[in-house]
Design goal:
seven-stranded mixed sheet, 2 domains, 288 residues, alpha/beta, 11 strands, four-stranded parallel sheet, 17% strand, Rossmann fold, 13 helices
Length: 288
Amino acid sequence: MDLDRTLRACQSLHDSVPRLIEQEANFIREHKIRLILGDIPPLCFEIAMRASVDSVAIANFTWSEIYRVYTKNYPAFLSLIEEMETFYRNATLALTLPYPCGMEIFPRQEPIPWVARTSPLTKQEGRKAFRLPQSATIVLLSFGGLGLERLPWSNLKQLGDFFFVTTGETKQETNNLRVLPEAQRKYEDLVRAVDVVVTKPGYGIVADVISHQVRTLYTERGEFAEYPHLTRALDECATAEFIPQDQLLSGNLAPYLTRLLNKKESWPAVPLDGAAVAAAKILGLIDR
């Protein structure tokens, strides 16, 4: 994390708030927009209020809560957090996803189930679609497009008991490693095709592994307020193990993968119809 640059970028954005409000509110009036759905930029709720339309937040965290962690060393975040929270309070409704972080700032909240993608393919069909070996133990390296250059590719190539796959800008194929740029568009099919996901927890990948019941090896992601909420979700709703980041970056995955694969599976029943529930609530607001 580069908090100095983050703070400067955040301050620059907030300096543009008056111009952005006027610009976006005019656009909303001109196009007769009736509702704004936000995930989860604070300013959109202020813009909606100024344009006299309803707004709905849908998220599992707020940016004010994320930045609050850094105020001890970066007190300049405090004024930005105060402005964010003022904007969040203008939302008509907040649809709160499971394991929320900081969502209590919204005056009106309604919990909804997981919003999750689900592949229509079987594991065998998923492997065929991406030309992956049917009999291998396939491990998906999933880091949201960030940090892949830090992974120890030469060490991973020596772990012959596992076949590694990931997405990236350039297609690559070696004996037990494949980089598939085209797979990003059908990521749920790729998750379906594998035996293990190795990741830093974010809402999207946590929802994916729960939806497809794929074992997960997760590492830390720095001082990020959302992290403990998502690791609790993995512990309670999935079959997961932790790997320290130094072990991941050194390529020492084999003992952690083996322990995870030998672990007794646990997949509690979890409702995954959050998208349909959210859509009904949003349409209800529009009809009102």
